[in-house]
Task: structure prediction
Amino acid sequence: MNRLASILVLISALAFFACEHKQAPPTPPVPVNLITATAQRVLYYDKYPATTIALKQVAMYAQVTGYITSIDFTEGTHVHKGQVLYHLDQRLYQAAVDQARANLRVDSGNLKQQQQDADRYLYLAKHNAVATQLVDHQLIALQNAKDSVFAAQQAVKTALTNLTYAYIYAPFDGTIGISQVRVGNLLSPGTTLINTISTDDPMAVDFYVSEAQLPHFEDLQMHKQKEIDSLFTIILPNGQIYPYLGKIAIIDRAVDPQTGTIDVRLAFPNPQYTLRPGMSAVVRVHNQDAAPQIVVPSRAVVEQMGEYFLFIAKDTILQTHQTDSAGGKKGDDSAGKKGADTVATPKLRAFQVKVQLGQTIGPNVIVRSGIHVGDRVIVDGVQSIHEGSQINASTGPAGGKDSTSAGNKGSTGTGNQERDSSKKQ
Result:
């Protein structure tokens, strides 16, 4: 029994020492790709959703009652100021003009008679041959006749004005829309919309900027918009860039307190009438920040709770034991060696840093702060690492292309505003 117990104790001791020397296998380094952060000059466009607006637009209504007798224009075409667009039945208004002119002739004849009578009474009054009362009454009658003539003249003007309202004219040069009425329709003053006409050259483009950007646009309006080439351009709904450049026409008088934005209006030449009111467009504002900036691939950025991080690679020095060919540690007393022989081994590890991002430019993004020129940024494999992860790095991103070379290509958005590339259109 004692012998069996001794055997069991020996086995337990051997098992204990075997477990004590057994270690968990080390985690293999995670393969990643690195780039070296460099500063470069980046040109891009700030982008804003916009809508085309006519600088002048008028809804046309009739000012007199009448039936439409003719429509004298082609719908959807350019018309000129003063061009007759609609004819209304003018017979009643022409008759009113004739009647007013006849009344004016009658009143003019009465005035002539009263003037002659007044002249006679005044002559007789000089020789005391007529009562003063009769002279006074005649002078009053003469003034009443003059007033009647004036009233008749105004009646003629009113009748002529109503007659002109039977013709509806274009108020300015512009494009007229589809007629809302047809020949034979009865129009009532101010109630029936006839058509809409709007100016077409130049054309306005409205977009909204935040109140924080307002001083920048005011500065552009006052000083710089004529000095900078391609400062304001627009992208049409079909994705093409409009060939003409715009300039700031108006900045609205007040900021919307609910949204914190203000309306900015640009004016663009429109000689071919390509732009029409109500079109959706994208305004591109050429950014003038010429200072070198750090640009990294967007895929390297990690977002956590609304904050942005990058992983950078750093060398760390670890003290490790060298082992002999028998697998024992050098310096281990059990291996018959004296002392402990250690070596400093460099290890590449990943460390997370918080960054502030700027504009997104194609597949890349500007880093405003958080990293420095020369830092080695992990661009591939960020999903498989964490703070302090040991990594096995290769230079350059997957595919063998330098991702920083794409810093000037493409266009995407960041935050509330989209951004474009530095490729100058």
About this structure: The longest strand covers residues 342-361.
